[in-house]
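User: CsbD family protein. Structure?
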Amino acid sequence: MSVGEKAKAKTEQVVGKAVRKVAHAVGNETTAAKGAALEARGKARDIKERSKDSFRR
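Assistant: Predicted structure:
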């Protein structure tokens, strides 16, 4: 997994989680859903890159 891709994946996860939690606290469910989607995209990117690494070995 390249360092850049790993950083992007982790950033999406952290930002998505923060957006989701703040939106829930404020009561904005639409933004909370967007934060959850961003977090899921980061996790999917991480899984994709890890699977690529497993085939390279």
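The mean pLDDT is 90. The radius of gyration is 13 Å.
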